[in-house]
Design a protein that fits this description.
The complex is a heterodimer of chains A (about 375) and B (about 100).
Chain A (H helix, E strand, L loop, with lengths): L1 E2 L2 E4 L3 H12 L4 E4 L15 E2 L9 H25 L10 E4 L3 H18 L7 E3 L1 H7 L12 E4 L3 E2 L2 H14 L3 E3 L4 E6 L4 E5 L3 E4 L1 E4 L5 H4 L10 E12 L11 E3 L4 E4 L14 H14 L8 E11 L6 E4 L6 E5 L7 H14 L21
Chain B lengths: L11 E6 L2 E6 L4 H7 L6 E2 L6 E2 L12 E4 L2 E5 L10 E6 L7
Parallel strand pairs in B: 1-7, 3-7
Antiparallel strand pairs in B: 1-2, 3-4, 5-6, 5-7
The chains are: A alpha/beta (about 375), B mainly beta (about 100).
């Protein structure tokens, strides 16, 4: 048996960021992580720190994403100091390329809605023309079919695997205890503390944060919480390494600091099947070539499918149990974007009970409202 | 440094590696042929520039990347030599065609 101040269930980019923030505040924390055959969304992540499309219908989430991007520069420096790992955060803004007039029109409508929703807080993304796109991406010739792009000044990207490793190393470096292959099977409360039972061990703490992706649906009800998440597959393609040509994040296209391009944007409703399919991979590659015809000859070296952790409105859920205070749930498919706010504000919320402003907006109770007939 | 365990016999072909003509067995992979000829490193890495030789010889490690007949980043262990094949070291990252 092990005891701690806080148990964090889940060692992906969500759980590890909260846990990292907790040990940074001096809170005695354990991470209970799954195994190599867990779904592990953090290992398939694309690596965007993305703001421009976040928060349709929930302004608090748009603000939250933007706040995280503002914290990201210091957060990356802090990870470099405590873990010695450079996560290669680039914050030069992001372009969402529009490959037809129809996509441009849809994007224009979304921007209008987001701008109206934001009101005086402001919404910063805007549509720019093809020649401006070319100026922002000088290293690659922009395809003739590109009908402009939406530019978000707060967008950026980072290496998601190095982020995960930095969070884990930083966590352990500051005294956190990490337990792999300890998938939690039950959570109970013994009157004084929460007890998390794994296959071979027990962990006891007065507070517990459930941040284990799809594992949440099983564990959250055990502490009076509800998180109606569903799986959605995204496929990613990776190319051979190419001389650096693009520093800016381009939505479904980004070039890593090591030279490989990543392409990917599929949203597939295939349950927990994390396989790959040629038609989807072909569509993803065709879009990349349409955007940048020079990519037509490059070799693909990898293709994977990964399962997103998606809430009904695609915005994050943060909740504390009303019936069992001290139990929290935290989840979203945006583990890289939100890593900075998770390490700062969410960790502080759990450590001190000091709730960030308007945090009830993130409660899963927002989904309990029945749809109008 | 490397020697063949048994001589496959039969035909040989001539390939060009960085301008040098090499006589190699007609059935060999590019990776095996370059190592048997003592041709030295076959690529430098894109990140640190370290010189590398083929390693896994079965298509997994991507350490044997070379340029073959003008096509960059080919896995030398997955290609059989051909008469007149022109091979160059893969020097770090490839460039895109204009």
């Amino acid at each position: 048996m092990h005891s701690a101040d806080v148990i964090v269930v889940g060692g992906g980019s969500f759980g590890a960021a909260v846990a990292y923030g907790l040990v940074r505040q001096g809170v005695d924390t354990v991470i209970l992580d799954g195994s190599d055959d867990s779904l592990r969304a953090a290992r398939g992540n694309f690596g965007l720190v993305w703001v421009q499309s976040k928060g349709m219908g929930l302004q608090r989430y748009a603000d939250w994403s933007r706040e995280s991007s503002h914290l990201w520069t210091d957060f990356a420096d802090d990870l470099q100091d405590s873990a010695g790992i450079h996560v290669n955060y680039q914050n030069g803004g992001g372009l969402n390329l529009l490959l037809s007039e129809e996509e441009r029109e849809n994007c224009r409508r979304s921007i209008d809605i987001m701008r109206q929703q934001a009101g005086p807080d402001g919404y910063d993304a805007e549509i720019i023309e093809r020649d401006e796109v070319q100026k922002m991406v000088p290293g690659l010739r922009v395809g003739d079919e590109v009908a402009g792009a939406s530019f978000g000044p707060h967008d950026g990207h980072a290496n998601p695997l190095r982020l995960l490793r930095a969070l884990h190393c930083g966590f352990e470096h500051r005294g956190g205890r990490y337990f792999a292959q300890n998938e939690v099977v039950s959570i109970t409360h013994d009157g004084s503390a929460f007890v998390a039972q794994t296959a071979n061990d027990r962990f006891v703490a007065p507070k517990i944060v459930i941040a284990c992706g799809h594992g949440i649906t099983k564990l959250a009800p055990m502490v009076g919480l509800n998180a109606p998440i569903r799986p959605q597959r995204g496929q990613v393609l990776v190319t051979e390494r190419i001389e650096t040509t693009v520093e800016m994040a381009l939505g479904s296209i980004r070039q890593t600091d090591e030279g490989g391009f990543m392409f990917g944007n599929s949203e597939e409703e295939v349950g927990f099947n994390d396989g790959t399919t040629l038609p989807i991979a072909g569509n993803i590659a065709a879009r990349a070539v349409k955007a940048f015809p020079q990519l037509s000859g490059v070799r693909l070296v990898r293709n994977w499918g990964c399962i997103r952790v998606l809430t009904p409105d695609k915005c994050a859920i943060y909740d504390e149990s009303e019936t069992m205070p001290g139990a929290y749930v935290a989840t979203s498919h945006s583990g890289v974007t939100l890593a900075a706010v998770n390490a700062h504000h969410v960790a502080n919320w759990v450590a001190t009970g000091d709730t960030p402003p308007d945090f009830d907006h993130f409660s899963a109770r927002r989904f309990d409202v029945p749809a109008a007939a | 440094m490397f020697r063949r365990l048994h001589d496959a016999g039969g035909q040989s072909v001539t390939i060009d590696f960085e301008g040098d003509a090499l006589q190699v067995g007609a059935q060999e992979t590019v990776a095996a042929a370059l190592m048997a000829a003592g041709a030295g490193h076959s690529r430098t890495t894109p990140v640190s520039g370290a010189p590398r030789l083929p390693f896994c010889m079965m298509g997994v490690c991507f350490d044997c990347l070379v340029e073959i007949d003008g096509v960059p980043n080919k896995q030398a262990c997955m290609e059989t030599v051909r008469e007149g094949m022109k091979i160059r070291r893969q020097d770090g990252k490839r460039r895109l065609d204009p």
